[in-house]
Recover the amino acids of this structure.
Protein backbone atom coordinates (compact mmCIF):
# COMPACT_ATOMS: atom_id res chain seq x y z
CA UNK A 1 0.00 0.00 0.00
CA UNK A 2 1.41 3.43 -0.85
CA UNK A 3 2.46 5.97 1.76
CA UNK A 4 -0.44 8.36 1.15
CA UNK A 5 -2.96 5.53 1.04
CA UNK A 6 -1.70 4.19 4.36
CA UNK A 7 -1.78 7.64 5.90
CA UNK A 8 -5.22 8.33 4.50
CA UNK A 9 -6.45 5.09 5.97
CA UNK A 10 -5.06 5.79 9.39
CA UNK A 11 -6.69 9.16 9.38
CA UNK A 12 -10.01 8.02 7.94
CA UNK A 13 -10.48 5.75 10.91
CA UNK A 14 -10.44 8.79 13.18
CA UNK A 15 -11.52 11.71 11.01
CA UNK A 16 -14.81 10.20 9.92
CA UNK A 17 -15.69 8.73 13.24
CA UNK A 18 -12.74 8.68 15.63
CA UNK A 19 -13.73 5.55 17.50
CA UNK A 20 -10.29 4.14 18.30
CA UNK A 21 -11.09 4.79 21.98
CA UNK A 22 -14.88 5.01 22.02
CA UNK A 23 -16.07 7.39 24.67
CA UNK A 24 -19.67 8.07 25.49
CA UNK A 25 -21.11 11.53 25.16
CA UNK A 26 -24.38 12.73 26.56
CA UNK A 27 -26.91 14.00 24.08
CA UNK A 28 -28.15 16.49 26.67
CA UNK A 29 -27.93 16.84 30.42
CA UNK A 30 -29.09 13.62 32.03
CA UNK A 31 -30.29 12.07 28.78
CA UNK A 32 -29.08 9.12 26.77
CA UNK A 33 -25.45 8.69 25.84
CA UNK A 34 -23.99 8.16 22.35
CA UNK A 35 -20.70 6.97 20.92
CA UNK A 36 -18.98 8.87 18.11
CA UNK A 37 -20.40 8.05 14.67
CA UNK A 38 -19.51 4.43 13.99
CA UNK A 39 -20.26 4.12 10.29
CA UNK A 40 -21.73 6.18 7.48
CA UNK A 41 -23.70 3.98 5.09
CA UNK A 42 -24.10 4.99 1.46
CA UNK A 43 -26.90 3.50 -0.62
CA UNK A 44 -25.44 2.50 -3.96
CA UNK A 45 -26.93 1.41 -7.28
CA UNK A 46 -23.57 -0.12 -8.28
CA UNK A 47 -21.65 -1.75 -5.42
CA UNK A 48 -18.79 -2.78 -7.70
CA UNK A 49 -18.19 0.84 -8.80
CA UNK A 50 -18.31 1.93 -5.15
CA UNK A 51 -15.80 -0.77 -4.22
CA UNK A 52 -13.47 0.35 -7.01
CA UNK A 53 -13.60 3.90 -5.62
CA UNK A 54 -13.28 3.27 -1.87
CA UNK A 55 -11.27 0.04 -1.87
CA UNK A 56 -9.15 0.28 -5.00
CA UNK A 57 -8.55 4.04 -5.26
CA UNK A 58 -8.66 5.19 -1.63
CA UNK A 59 -7.33 2.01 -0.01
CA UNK A 60 -10.18 1.06 2.33
CA UNK A 61 -10.34 -2.66 3.19
CA UNK A 62 -13.48 -4.77 3.10
CA UNK A 63 -14.46 -5.76 6.64
CA UNK A 64 -17.40 -7.78 5.36
CA UNK A 65 -19.49 -8.17 2.23
CA UNK A 66 -22.68 -10.10 2.79
CA UNK A 67 -26.16 -10.70 1.46
CA UNK A 68 -28.74 -9.80 4.10
CA UNK A 69 -32.46 -10.46 4.15
CA UNK A 70 -35.53 -9.41 6.06
CA UNK A 71 -35.35 -6.63 8.65
CA UNK A 72 -32.48 -4.42 9.73
CA UNK A 73 -30.71 -2.52 6.97
CA UNK A 74 -32.99 -3.92 4.26
CA UNK A 75 -36.13 -2.69 6.05
CA UNK A 76 -34.54 0.68 6.81
CA UNK A 77 -33.00 1.49 3.43
CA UNK A 78 -35.08 -0.50 0.95
CA UNK A 79 -38.60 -1.03 2.33
CA UNK A 80 -40.32 -3.78 0.39
CA UNK A 81 -37.07 -5.43 -0.71
CA UNK A 82 -36.52 -8.98 0.50
CA UNK A 83 -32.72 -8.90 0.42
CA UNK A 84 -29.75 -6.61 -0.08
CA UNK A 85 -25.98 -6.51 -0.09
CA UNK A 86 -24.29 -4.95 2.91
CA UNK A 87 -20.59 -4.03 2.70
CA UNK A 88 -18.45 -2.48 5.44
CA UNK A 89 -15.20 -0.74 4.48
CA UNK A 90 -12.64 0.43 6.98
CA UNK A 91 -9.11 1.47 7.79
CA UNK A 92 -7.27 0.13 10.78
CA UNK A 93 -8.34 -2.60 13.15
CA UNK A 94 -11.59 -1.15 14.47
CA UNK A 95 -14.89 -0.46 12.75
CA UNK A 96 -15.11 3.16 13.91
CA UNK A 97 -14.60 5.56 11.03
CA UNK A 98 -15.93 3.12 8.51
CA UNK A 99 -18.01 3.52 5.40
CA UNK A 100 -20.86 1.16 4.67
CA UNK A 101 -22.28 0.42 1.23
CA UNK A 102 -25.80 -0.93 0.79
CA UNK A 103 -27.42 -2.24 -2.40
CA UNK A 104 -30.79 -3.84 -3.06
CA UNK A 105 -32.35 -4.94 -6.34
CA UNK A 106 -34.44 -2.23 -7.97
CA UNK A 107 -32.75 0.79 -6.41
CA UNK A 108 -32.76 3.66 -8.90
CA UNK A 109 -29.44 4.78 -10.34
CA UNK A 110 -28.16 8.31 -9.81
CA UNK A 111 -28.35 9.94 -13.23
CA UNK A 112 -26.17 12.99 -12.59
CA UNK A 113 -24.29 14.52 -9.69
CA UNK A 114 -25.37 18.08 -8.96
CA UNK A 115 -23.56 21.04 -7.53
CA UNK A 116 -24.23 22.95 -5.36
CA UNK A 117 -25.29 20.36 -2.83
CA UNK A 118 -28.97 19.75 -2.24
CA UNK A 119 -30.46 19.53 1.25
CA UNK A 120 -29.77 16.07 2.62
CA UNK A 121 -26.58 15.66 0.60
CA UNK A 122 -23.70 14.00 2.39
CA UNK A 123 -20.05 14.96 2.32
CA UNK A 124 -17.15 12.90 3.69
CA UNK A 125 -13.91 14.58 4.78
CA UNK A 126 -10.60 12.73 4.66
CA UNK A 127 -7.14 14.11 5.39
CA UNK A 128 -3.97 13.12 3.58
CA UNK A 129 -0.29 13.92 3.75
CA UNK A 130 0.09 14.01 -0.04
CA UNK A 131 -2.88 15.64 -1.75
CA UNK A 132 -1.03 16.07 -5.06
CA UNK A 133 -0.34 12.33 -5.38
CA UNK A 134 -3.87 11.34 -4.37
CA UNK A 135 -5.36 13.91 -6.72
CA UNK A 136 -3.24 12.60 -9.59
CA UNK A 137 -4.44 9.05 -8.87
CA UNK A 138 -8.11 10.12 -8.79
CA UNK A 139 -7.74 12.25 -11.93
CA UNK A 140 -6.04 9.39 -13.79
CA UNK A 141 -8.96 7.12 -12.85
CA UNK A 142 -11.42 9.64 -14.28
CA UNK A 143 -13.09 10.44 -10.95
CA UNK A 144 -15.26 13.56 -11.46
CA UNK A 145 -14.03 16.55 -9.48
CA UNK A 146 -16.38 19.11 -7.96
CA UNK A 147 -13.98 22.01 -8.32
CA UNK A 148 -10.39 22.58 -9.40
CA UNK A 149 -9.33 22.59 -5.74
CA UNK A 150 -8.87 25.39 -3.29
CA UNK A 151 -6.49 26.62 -0.62
CA UNK A 152 -7.27 28.57 2.51
CA UNK A 153 -5.58 29.61 5.72
CA UNK A 154 -7.27 29.02 9.04
CA UNK A 155 -6.11 28.68 12.64
CA UNK A 156 -4.47 25.33 11.81
CA UNK A 157 -2.49 26.88 8.97
CA UNK A 158 -2.57 26.63 5.18
CA UNK A 159 -4.84 23.87 3.92
CA UNK A 160 -5.35 22.55 0.39
CA UNK A 161 -8.64 20.83 -0.44
CA UNK A 162 -9.74 18.81 -3.44
CA UNK A 163 -13.28 17.43 -3.70
CA UNK A 164 -14.66 14.69 -5.92
CA UNK A 165 -17.91 12.80 -6.37
CA UNK A 166 -17.90 9.11 -5.52
CA UNK A 167 -19.94 6.81 -7.84
CA UNK A 168 -23.06 7.61 -5.76
CA UNK A 169 -22.64 11.41 -5.99
CA UNK A 170 -21.43 11.62 -2.39
CA UNK A 171 -18.98 14.48 -2.05
CA UNK A 172 -15.58 13.33 -0.82
CA UNK A 173 -13.38 16.22 0.26
CA UNK A 174 -9.71 15.45 0.73
CA UNK A 175 -7.59 17.96 2.61
CA UNK A 176 -3.92 18.39 3.39
CA UNK A 177 -3.10 20.63 6.36
CA UNK A 178 0.35 21.92 5.49
CA UNK A 179 1.55 22.70 9.04
CA UNK A 180 0.55 19.37 10.60
CA UNK A 181 1.47 15.74 10.23
CA UNK A 182 -1.42 13.30 10.06
CA UNK A 183 -0.62 12.18 13.62
CA UNK A 184 -0.90 15.79 14.80
CA UNK A 185 -4.22 16.18 12.99
CA UNK A 186 -5.61 13.05 14.65
CA UNK A 187 -4.94 14.52 18.08
CA UNK A 188 -6.77 17.80 17.48
Amino acid sequence: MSRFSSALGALAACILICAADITLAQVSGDGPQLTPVRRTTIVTADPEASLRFYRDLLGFTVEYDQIVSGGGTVALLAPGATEGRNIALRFGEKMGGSIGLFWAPGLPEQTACVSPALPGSVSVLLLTDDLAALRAKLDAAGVPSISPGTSYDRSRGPTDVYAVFDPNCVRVAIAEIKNETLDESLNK
